[in-house]
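Notes to self after the Tuesday call (sharing in case useful).
The group wants a holo model before anyone commits to mutagenesis around the pocket. I volunteered. Ligand is uracil. Logging inputs and output together so the record is complete.
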Amino acid sequence: MIGKENMNESAVSPASGPGFALVSLLEWYHDSGVDEILLENPVDRFADSAAKQTQTRHRQTAPASPAPRHELIPSTADTARDIAKQANDLSALRAAVASFEGCTLKNTAMNLVFGDGNPAADVMLVGEAPGADEDRQGRPFVGASGQLLDRMFASIGIDRNSIYLTNVLPWRPPGNRNPTPGEIAVCLPFLQQHIALVSPKILVLVGTVASKTLLRRDKEGILRLRGRWFTYQTEEGIEPIPVLPILHPAYLLRSPLQKGKTWQDLLQLKRKLSK
Ligand code: URA
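Result:
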């Protein structure tokens, strides 16, 4: 990393010129881990949320006839569940997610990444969260790992128009950090309704986060879960959906020797589809 002293030296030295100073500043940002510039001016989100909390507190102490406690302070996940349940089709669900204010990832993301592919497909894929490319384009799995996923599915004769893709989180976590349990919990009702509306014949869970979230198997890692068939229950009385966890293509890009495992898993998927 370029030290502060170095940055000041290169940024203000008249001998080095304004272009050189700008390049040094950008290098310093890059080395400090800044990989996205979102807005012209910084926004103090902590001040925003503190102001909102103060307003909420004032609103809550004001009503003449107090409402039951759960109506005053509904948990955000409960609110998400109520909103999601009211969406009867994908465009209503998309609109509901787009107007949902309960997940702060929305504030830092450029775009909502809802879903892509064919909503009438037999196979629905659920990944973790959008990365930088997905965030820019508003579509899941369009970056390097998405392109590998496309090639892997093409190898069993399935293209993107014959599957449907979404993620556990519809907004990119800043800097591609791991999603927090709170973010997952608050977005889960939307994902559950998404699956219920698409109602696929087979659900493929791409990577650790999707597998652990939907299978609720915290103790087993993806290397133990992958390639095994599980079931996912959308609603009481509805036939459970067969589920196949697979390794995440981002992991395969880092560990190409593991690709053979995914090849075996995709052959299993193909066999199941041809039954
Ligand atoms: N990784 C994911 O899990 N989802 C995407 O959409 C892209 C990369």
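Two things stood out.
Residues 1-14, 56-73 have pLDDT under 50 and may be disordered.
The CA atoms of residues 129 and 178 lie 9 Å apart.
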